[in-house]
Write a structure and sequence with these properties.
Blueprint: E1 3-14, H1 53-65, E2 69-70, E3 73-74, E4 77-80, E5 90-93, E6 100-106, E7 112-122, E8 126-130, E9 135-139, E10 146-152, H2 159-175, E11 188-198, E12 208-213, H3 216-235, E13 243-248, E14 253-259, H4 263-266, E15 269-270, E16 277-278, H5 281-289, H6 295-304, H7 310-316, H8 320-333, H9 336-354, H10 366-376, H11 382-395, H12 399-405, H13 414-427, H14 429-436, H15 441-453, H16 460-471
Parallel strand pairs: 12-13
Antiparallel strand pairs: 1-10, 1-11, 2-6, 3-16, 4-5, 4-15, 6-7, 7-10, 8-9, 11-12, 13-14
Helix pairs in contact: 2-3, 7-9, 8-9, 8-10, 10-11, 13-15, 13-16, 14-15, 15-16
């Protein structure tokens, strides 16, 4: 019997605010354990939370970007559970009155994945497992970090749709500046809710949840494994249980953690220390008007106004950091296609070669345009330009100064080019005679020798023309 896999994602996004959601502690990633903590985020009794206004604005920004309704009145609840990295033994979150509801994200094929809600909440700490001491140590730096949890509806069918949805959502969050979405730092992670049902049925099957998937590769593998496990259990006449499972990417398997709790198990009730959040229509419209151009709109503009192929636009708009490099380069050099070619070619090649993420590009983005302009003005050739860009990418050198200091500019003095070529011809009499005897390959050899003597710093067309003239 064929089965259909049904998937919903709960995406946790760490916000790019300067301070935590309910206190003034900084949000910078890293630092010694328990160094970004105060009595409030450490859960000390008697401390009072103060809501970070920027968190509410970022929540509205994300909600509007994914077509959500903004709830004018929303509030916070306490979600109770005990875990060593949750010092207060409850998490402040939104359950009954989330800030955003009823949105959608459109996939590549036009299908819309519904968004049930977005809610604001605080993060828990982190346990560090010390194998040497055979102990787990609690680092509370992450406690009270501001999060948005974006809960989709179970509208996805298979890993392809889940990954497409996740990547499109991630891009929107990056474009709006809500989060840096650094998966390697845990800024964005996903819980996968998955179930299977016989093809054609509409009732949902028993679901399991896999926690904190932090890469699209892991997402694809986890969905494939868990879907197959569900089908196998059903096929053998077993009974699936609603539970939370841990995905072990090294083992390629999921493992049961605990039975899946329902709302009653968490004993939600309104946080007595936080008043309701009231959002005016004027505030919503202000945030809406300040939304940046989003990925799909940017793709259309690149195609319709700049004349770029769809393939180019899909690659460039896949990262807001590549977009910034492209747009800065185009603004300065005025050639959209050439700017796109360099971003998609040399920039992506160097990113892959150095295993650098686009968000970690550390060079001055003006530099790529300067290199293109140097080529346009015939100051350097394309081969030299690639070498200069490699230095820019690695060491953030100034292209113009680097070309001057290393004597890389093209030789444009025809007399100097002619003198060098005459020396090459005198040193390669055999090849000269072969060319005059009708061997066309000899010309290519002489061009190569001339370019070598000129250190690649003369225009190839000029070298070829002078060679032919001297050879008669």
């Amino acid at each position: 019997m064929p089965y259909e896999t049904v998937i919903g994602l709960e995406v946790h996004c760490e916000l790019a605010t300067q301070s935590k959601i309910f206190c003034g502690c900084g949000t910078k990633f890293g630092g010694p354990p328990n160094s970004h903590v105060c009595p409030g985020c450490a859960g000390f009794p008697g401390t009072l939370p103060v809501l970070n206004k920027c968190v509410v604005e970022y929540a509205m920004r994300a909600g509007l970007a994914i077509n959500c309704d903004i709830n004018r009145i929303n509030g916070f609840e306490r979600k109770h559970y005990f875990y060593p990295d949750l010092p207060a033994a409850y998490q402040v979150t939104q359950f009954y009155m989330p800030v955003c509801t009823n949105g959608w994200v459109e996939l590549a094929d036009g299908k819309r994945v519904g968004i049930k809600q977005i809610h604001m909440e605080e993060d828990a700490g982190k346990l560090v497992h010390d194998d040497f001491e055979d102990a787990s140590l609690a680092d509370q730096n992450r406690c009270s970090m501001p999060l948005l949890e974006i809960v989709s509806r179970p509208d996805m069918r298979g890993a392809g749709e889940a990954i497409d949805y996740f990547e499109r959502l991630k891009a929107i969050l990056e474009y709006t500046g809500v989060s840096d979405c650094r998966m390697q730092e845990g800024s964005i992670r996903a819980d996968i809710n998955i179930s299977v049902r016989p093809a054609g049925e509409t009732a949902l099957g028993v679901r399991t949840e896999m926690k904190n998937i932090n890469s699209t590769r892991a997402m694809a593998r986890a969905i494939a494994f868990e879907s197959a496990r569900h089908i196998e259990v059903i096929g053998e006449g077993g009974a699936l249980v609603q539970e939370t499972r841990r995905w072990d990417d090294d083992a390629g398997e999921s493992f049961s953690m605990r039975s899946k709790e329902n709302a009653a198990d968490y004993r939600y009730f309104p946080d007595p220390n936080l008043p309701p959040v009231v959002i005016s229509d004027e505030e919503i419209e202000r945030v809406r008007k300040n939304l940046p151009e989003l990925p799909e709109a940017k793709k259309r503009r690149y195609i319709e106004q700049l004349g770029l192929p769809a393939y180019d636009t899909n690659i460039i708009t896949g990262s807001v950091h590549l977009v910034r490099l492209f747009e800065r380069t185009y603004a300065l050099c005025g050639d959209a296609k050439e700017s796109a070619n360099w971003v998609m070619g040399e920039a992506l090649r160097l990113l892959q070669q150095t295993q650098t993420l686009p968000e970690d590009m550390a060079f001055d983005f003006d530099s790529l345009a300067k290199i293109i302009i140097l080529v346009q003005k015939n100051v350097i050739n394309r081969g030299t330009a690639k070498k200069v860009f490699a230095e820019v990418f690695t060491n953030n050198v100034d292209p113009e100064s680097y070309v001057k200091e290393h004597n890389l500019a093209l030789v444009t003095d025809n007399a100097a080019i002619r003198a060098t070529i005459e020396q090459v011809l005198a040193a390669n009499e055999k090849s000269v005679n072969e060319y005059k005897g009708g061997k066309a390959q000899a010309l290519q050899f002489l061009i190569g020798q001339s370019m070598k003597a000129l250190r690649g710093q003369a225009p190839a067309q000029e070298v070829t023309a002078i060679l032919k003239e001297l050879l008669g």
